[in-house]
Amino acid sequence: MNKFQTFMRDLYKRTVAAIQRFPVSMTVIVLAFGLMVYTTWVNYYYWPESIHRLIGILWIVLPLFTAPTLFFKQRWTLIPGLLAGLILWFTTHDGLPDQDMALLTMWGVAFYSLIFILPRWRRNENNGFWKYCEEILFILILGFICS
């Protein structure tokens, strides 16, 4: 039982540290996940049409809150993510027609690539995690192309 208690204590400490370091990103994740669970368990006819658009925009702007925090380690860098989210909200329509879906997909790919590009900007000896992420991304892209 001692190992389990140590594991739970360590898990709690790491969770609190992640929430303190990325409060906006964690809020976006919890909000998007909560809305996805809501749409799963509530009857389709009883929730507003804009909820899919909101979920998509939340997942797209998530790297805009995470990448600058990782790179600059300053809170003022969260403003572009907020502005991008508002711009995407006002330029897309409810029901997500194909044109808006293509727009959101392209912006999502561009924003998620920030997480892989920004750590390479600065030369650091501790880039092992990012190299591992790049390898996984390459394998996913290769698998997508080959399938």
The biggest beta sheet reads: none
* Global mean pLDDT: 77
Radius of gyration: 18 Å
Q: N- to C-terminal separation?
A: 46 Å
Contiguous helical run count: 6
- Say what oligomer this is: single chain
Strand proportion: under 5%
Number of strand segments = 0
Return the structural class.
Answer: mainly alpha
Query: Any idea how many domains?
Result: 1
User: How would you describe the shape?
Assistant: globular
Elements, N to C (H/E): HHHHHH
> Helicity range of the residues?
over 70%
Low-confidence segments, given as residue ranges, are: none
Descriptive report:
- The chain contains six helices and no strands.
- The chain has one domain.
- The radius of gyration is 18 Å and the shape is globular.
- The N and C termini lie far apart (46 Å).
- The mean pLDDT is 77.
- The chain is an all-alpha fold.
- α3 (50-72) packs antiparallel against α4 and α3 runs parallel beside α5 (98-121).
- 80% of the residues lie in helices and 0% in strands.
Task: Describe, in short, the structure shown.
This protein is mainly α. The chain has one domain (2-146). The chain is built from 6 helices and no strands.
Draw up the topology in text:
Elements: H1 2-21, H2 23-41, H3 50-72, H4 79-91, H5 98-121, H6 128-146
Helix pairs in contact: 1-2, 2-3, 3-4, 3-5
Q: Which key features would you list for this structure?
A:
mainly alpha; 0% strand; 147 residues
